[in-house]
Each structure stands twice: as C-alpha cells, then as structure tokens.
Amino acid sequence: MDARIVVLCLAACCAPAAALQPLSDAALAAVRGGDGVSFDLAGFAMSGDARVSYTAAPGRSLYVEKLSASRSDSSDAFGDPYRLDVVAGGVGLADYFQLAFPRNAKAEQRWQFAYDWGVAADGAARDGGSVVVKDAVWSGGGLQFSTPRQNDGIAFGLALNLSVAELVLRPRGRADASEQMTLRGIRLGGVDADGNFNNTAWALADVATQPAVINALVDDSGPRLHVGIGWPDARLGSGAAPAGGLLIENISFVSAGQPTVDLGSSRIGSMQIQYLDVKFKR
C-alpha cells in the first residue's frame, strides 16, 4: 500500500470529534424517546394460596384467594407479543404507559382462570364458592396508566375485545359441578352503528378523551375507595363515548337432582359509558 494512503487514513481516523454543544430548555423538552419493551408469556402458569382482601370497615371484608391461571401458546412463539410503551400525552397532558395486548387473530392464546371468594361481616364468615373461566381470548385492546388531572390516584384507560367460552359460578368449589350457574359464549367488543361486532376493541375509558380513575376520597365518614370514568372530552376527542356490544349465547343453572334451568341467550346490541362514579361505603 502506498505510504501516502496510509498517512491519509490515519489522519482521517484521528480527526477530533465535534465538541459537545449545550441544548436549550426548549430543545430538551422537544426530545422524545422510543422507550418500550415487547414480551410474551409462553408457557405461563401460576397457582397458589395467596389471599387478597378488601376491608370496608373493621370486621367486614371481601376476599379472593387461591388464584390459578394458565395460557396456551401461539404457534408462532414470540411472534405476537405484548407491548409496553411510554407514549407522549396530548397538549397539556402527562405522558402515559400503554400496555397493548396481542392481536391474537387466530385465537390461539387462550386463558384459563379459577379463584375462590368469600365475605366476612358481623362476626360471620361465608365461603362464596369458586369462579371458573374457560378459554378467555383477548384480541387486541389494552391498558393505559397515567397521573390524574385532578387529585391523587391512578388514571387509566381500558379497551377490550374479549370472548369467553364459559364463565362458571360454583358454590361448592371449583371441582364440584353439581351446583353451578354457567354463562357460555360471552362476547364483548366494539360495534358499528347498527350494533354489529366489528372485531375492534371497545374503549371503556381513555386517558386522554375519557379518563378513568382509581383513588381514595375523604369525606365526613372517612376515606372511601373511588372508581370513576369521566365524561367524554370534546376538546381532545369526538365528544362521544365509544359504543360496545355484549353477547351471552346461553345462561343456565344446574342443581343436583333438579332439571337444568335454561334461560337462553342475552344480548345488548350497543351500549356506551357516558359517566361512572362509584364510592365504596365504609
């Protein structure tokens, strides 16, 4: 190699880097990253004896315990993941976390759940039995989390496109099917103007256009757990609440030694949540 070429190459490699330049506050505020992570839950299964209780007042509580959950996997492992992103909020709004569910177009990712529940009040404890969910399928939709515009707590959004093969209530425990109420063929999702499912997620709440909130409110009777969904915000959206539909293909009751009671099907073609304000009394 010609010596002159070597010298030129060395000079190019050793050229000093450009000096760092300070950024103004306006320039720093304009920086937007691409923070996020994708993950799958291949082979997921869990079970245990943990109990979660909500105490409304001393000696009065509702509990859920012994949760079990498992998921069947997609044929394309890690090809349709969950996505957790940090998303820029609208003008004057805080950024928010967004958890997008898998699209699950082939409905291969199916969830199985079971848990026990009960209540305790006035010195008496009652076992309410078990809830069993079979083949729950989420297809798109997701969750959003942010800070509320007013007060403390958590602001959130929720969009669902969900189908469930069976939701079973068993008062004698999850393994005893001699007494049960069964809801089969449950479908919840977005609908068009005619009330027909259109394979979209129904946005029950959105952190920008119709935020929901969970927080504690204090009045003369003390602190209360509060769950609410605000009115649709016409400044940031259309001003109309999204429409969703609910279908239950069959509702039935089974009791030992008695004929099965079949109530048939039930459907709500189109529904909207305009406003929700729930306070749990102590």
- N-to-C terminal Cα separation, in Å? 87 Å
User: Any low-confidence stretches, pLDDT <50, length ≥5?
Assistant: 1-15
The radius of gyration is: 26 Å
Helix-strand topology string? HHEEEEEEEEEEEEEEEE
Largest β-sheet summary: 16 strands, antiparallel
Rough outline: globular
Which structural category do the helix and sheet elements fall into?
mainly beta
Q: Count the beta strands.
A: 16
Q: What do these coordinates show?
A:
The chain is mainly β and 282 residues long. Helices cover 6% and strands 52% of the residues. It has helices at residues 3-13, 25-29; strands at 36-39, 45-47, 51-57, 60-71, 82-87, 96-100, 111-121, 124-146, 154-170, 180-190, 202-205, 212-219, 222-229, 244-254, 261-271, 276-280. It has a 16-stranded antiparallel beta sheet that branches. A hairpin with a 7-residue loop joins strand 8 (124-146) and strand 9 (154-170). The longest helix is centred in the first third of the chain and has 11 residues, at 3-13. It is globular, with a radius of gyration of 26 Å. It starts with a helix and ends with a strand. Residues 1-15 have low confidence and may be disordered.
